Amino acid sequence: MNSFPNYKNKNILILGLGLLGRGIKDTIFFVKKGANVTVTDLKTKEQLSTALKQLKQYKNIKFVLGKHRHEDIDKADLIIRNADVPLNSEFLQYAFKKKKLVEMDESMFAEFCPCPIIGITGTRGKTTTATLIYEFLKKTDKKVYLAGNIMGQATLPLMDKVKKNDLVVLELSSWQLQGFGWKKISPQVAVFTNIYPDHLNRYKGMRDYIADKRNIYKWQHKNDYFIANSRDKVTSSAVKSARAKIKMFSSSQVPKSWEIKLFGEHNLENISAAIQVAKIFKVKDKDIRTVLARFKGVEHRLEFVKKVSGIDFINDTTSTTPIAGQMALASLNKPIILIAGGATKQLELKNFSKDIAQKVKAVVLLKGTATDELKNGIVKYKGEDKILGEFDNFEEAVKTAFKYAEKGDVVLLSPGCASFGMFTNEFDRGEQFKKIVKDLR
């Protein structure tokens, strides 16, 4: 294993600071390495104010906000690309043309990491599966770290902590996996949960999206492990080209007698995938069961918020795709008042509209570029009388759902659409929902 390069006095460009914490922590990492750091982002100083506050104490950072510039790329010895900067960005393409060294946080870490990495990808279930694997592996005698596409986490800073006998669990998005493809490397243990249409506002089509996801296992070796969903067409066919040892998972592998707090068939799949990893690292059955009996899930994913006047409020804000909305509806067996709609990702909304028309008691719509299509679909499937209105005021939307709900009902935030427009991101949407709900009387 090569040792991490020395970046003292080198010019590092952070291309995209972002708001979720990764860009902030990467910036601090390079500042502490003695580098001259320049941070550029298309967002303005005002939009990035919370992120900038966390960097205030560090002196050798230069900020260029509201734009990226060719001159900053020209000067850079290393460029760290934020996953939100698309591959077709003119600035990224300019950097490639100038033969600049462009890295991504997770894959750069993976290249120099001294210990095994367990990587998890898929359209749905990544965070829940990764977090559960982390909880299981804490039952071994090893020190375990959780990072990657986890909110507020950055991976590169782990470089200063990890030792040879540790384990690192990384949730990996399709964009983060582009970096693994550049380096032709994959995690030693790869988990591929499923594939559904997603991010078609940034990909030409499903083939490109799946190609990035395949980097999770594509560069593995024969002693590595590839864990795939036996009921998903893409993941189960992926095993044919895999070089690693194969383990398949499905919801039916989880014993019905086990105490589990998560609901929904999709969560049984996530649990099954995590158990396969636990078994590779010899976690005992009794420890697996203990963890499962306590595990309440991950924030913002079918998260129980509060019961008000006998009505349950559930926050599923990370439902940013129609299939996620459908899964949420299938997971609950009480009458549902759904809060849905938002920004488009160029995804097919027909089946989600149909499920809303047929399965919910009522629906409150949030204004956005996808909402007209969603609404037309609900009307088409004869659910027009279930629509309680379309709102650009979130508090009003939640209070309308509450007013309509009766004891024994569920008010479910599961938009099935992206959040841009009314919210900073889907986590902001979830936080606002929880705050409004906690203030309800």
Automatic annotation (TrEMBL):
GO terms for biological process: cell division; cell wall organization; peptidoglycan biosynthetic process; regulation of cell shape. Residues 300-415 form the Mur ligase C-terminal domain. It is found in: Cytoplasm. ATP binds at residues 122-128. Gene3D superfamilies: Mur ligase, C-terminal domain, Mur-like, catalytic domain, NAD(P)-binding Rossmann-like Domain. It catalyses: UDP-N-acetyl-alpha-D-muramoyl-L-alanine + D-glutamate + ATP = UDP-N-acetyl-alpha-D-muramoyl-L-alanyl-D-glutamate + ADP + phosphate + H(+). Keywords: ATP-binding, Cell cycle, Cell division, Cell shape, Cell wall biogenesis/degradation, Cytoplasm, Ligase, Nucleotide-binding, Peptidoglycan synthesis. GO terms for cellular component: cytoplasm. Residues 120-249 form the Mur ligase central domain. Its main location: cytoplasm. It is an enzyme of class 6 (ligase). It holds the Pfam family Mur_ligase_M. Transmembrane segments: none annotated. Pathway: Cell wall biogenesis; peptidoglycan biosynthesis. InterPro entries: Mur-like_cat_sf (IPR036565), Mur_ligase_C (IPR004101), Mur_ligase_C_dom_sf (IPR036615), Mur_ligase_cen (IPR013221), MurD (IPR005762). One of its GO terms (molecular function) is ATP binding. Its EC number is 6.3.2.9. HAMAP family: MurD. Cell wall formation. Catalyzes the addition of glutamate to the nucleotide precursor UDP-N-acetylmuramoyl-L-alanine (UMA). Belongs to the MurCDEF family. This is UDP-N-acetylmuramoylalanine--D-glutamate ligase. The lineage of its organism: Bacteria, Candidatus Falkowiibacteriota. The gene is murD.
